[in-house]
Write a structure and sequence with these properties.
alpha/beta; five-stranded mixed sheet; binds adenosine-5'-triphosphate; binds magnesium ion
Length: 418
């Protein structure tokens, strides 16, 4: 290069560096909270269909999901993975979990026994006597396949109540849940699936505890229809006069509390070891649920995104939730400012005095729930077990599986209590 050329290059006016701005396509987004957050982040929002090719982030809350996936470009991301409905719909999730249970009876004994109806009606019928009454005092909870917010869900002891020909799941009702102050509750836990190939999952350190508004009594003929006693959904309980709005932002009171409060409560009531075990266990269950659809996700990925390859699928190598081998992990993002450790929460000691577990201890609950779930997963399913024993010499019977699996499934601290 000559000196002259060199000078001319140096004198060239510098191009103004263009900052890359996220362009958010909002035409298929139904939630104002998402749009507001996008605005706060300083991202640009477009709604015009003609501009969709310019967008690099899509939020789709409607049936256009598959159309969008088909035309998604490599520089574009969206809020769904193809194949996720396989665990978002009750029938599909039941089917996938049941399939895994057959292959991995120990690892998948974490959910109540589930029948997909009407397909599994003949097996389900075996749970009832000739008068259509449930055997062994069992109670079933029946849920419409595509329902949410507790809609259409009911408890039953008789076969007559099952709607004929409708797509529903029937599940063993867990009669002995852990209670907070005498009330049934559930946990809403948020996990973020950042990547499917390889599977990368983040477990958010906060979430919601949603409480019933009527004190819990094991189901009997007088209370079996009381949804505010048996269903923990906010949509069900918010209409009850007993519903208590939380006092403040701490999430430590009222009918909706925070997951961080709950973990503090567990620590105080049941000790650090159990709280640590529980947190890991929740991560494990999330991972195993996701793993149940890995083959489907993998297939869908290959169809939609041809360049992705190589999903490790040997589930036996995945031992816990918080870190996994083969690139699987359920990790806890840190330093995001909005979450702290659920364990060392400020004010834990002062909250402890106010919150008292009314009746059943964690240990008892754990024992009986494990028994209910174990019944559901192994004891009742003789046919499955026989079939497995026939086809796989290394598979042991249900009782052996339970004891072999104690340390992972129940935690070492619960062993003595069984
Ligand atoms: N097997 C069970 N044993 C005891 N209680 C259950 C069982 N299944 C569900 N419940 C109760 O019923 C509530 C509603 O059930 P579920 O969460 O399955 O359906 P949904 O809330 O209508 O749908 P989704 O959560 O898929 O949006 C749960 O939050 C829980 O309180
Ligand atoms: Mg629910």
């Amino acid at each position: 290069m000559s000196d002259e050329e060199d000078v001319s290059v140096q004198n060239k006016p510098k191009k103004k560096k263009r900052t890359q701005r996220v362009i958010f396509y909002a035409a298929d987004c139904w939630y104002s909270v998402v749009k507001e957050r996008v605005k706060q982040l300083g991202w640009k929002t477009v709604e015009d269909e003609k501009l969709d090719a310019k967008a690099n982030l899509f939020w789709v809350d409607c049936s256009k999901l598959h159309d969008r996936l088909k035309i998604l470009q490599p520089w574009q991301v969206m809020n769904h993975f193809p194949g996720m409905p396989n665990i978002a719909r009750k029938n599909s999730m039941g089917q996938n979990l049941n399939r895994m249970l057959k292959m991995f009876p120990k690892e998948y004994a974490f959910y109540p026994r589930t029948w997909i109806l009407p397909n599994q009606m003949s097996d389900f019928r075996n749970q009832f006597d000739s008068h259509n009454n449930a055997l062994d005092n069992k109670i079933f909870i029946v849920k419409p396949d595509a329902g949410c917010q507790g809609r259409g869900i009911f408890l039953t002891k008789t076969l007559d109540k099952i709607p004929i020909g409708e797509n529903v799941v029937a599940q063993m009702y867990l009669k002995n849940p852990l209670l907070i102050d005498g009330y049934k509750f559930d946990l809403r836990i948020y996990c973020f699936v950042a990547s499917v190939k390889p599977l990368r999952v983040y477990l958010f350190q906060d979430g919601l505890v949603r409480m019933c508004t009527q004190e819990y009594v094991r189901p009997n003929k007088d209370n079996i229809e009381q949804s505010c006693m048996h269903l923990t959904n906010y949509a069900v309980n918010k209409h009850n006069d007993n519903f208590q709005q939380p006092d403040d932002d701490d999430g430590d009171s009222g009918s909706k509390r925070s997951l961080q409060w709950f973990m503090d409560w567990i620590r105080e009531e049941h000790g650090n070891d159990k709280a640590d075990w529980l947190w890991k266990r929740m991560g494990t269950i999330i991972m195993r649920t996701l793993l149940s659809i890995i083959p489907i996700l993998s297939r869908e990925y290959d169809q939609h995104f041809k360049s992705f390859t190589g999903v490790p699928v040997d589930i036996r190598k995945i031992h816990t939730s918080t870190t996994g081998s083969n690139g699987y992990s359920a990790s806890q993002p840190t330093g995001n400012g909005s979450t702290g450790s659920g364990s060392e929460g400020v004010g834990a000691a002062s909250r402890g005095g106010r919150m008292q577990s009314r009746s059943n201890s964690f240990k008892q609950r754990e024992q009986s729930q494990e028994r209910e779930q174990h019944d559901a997963a192994t004891t009742d399913d003789e046919n499955t077990r026989k079939e497995q024993n026939r086809t796989n010499n290394t598979t042991t019977n249900g009782d052996q599986q339970e004891s072999e699996n104690e340390s992972e499934e129940t935690g070492p601290q619960l062993r003595g209590s069984r």
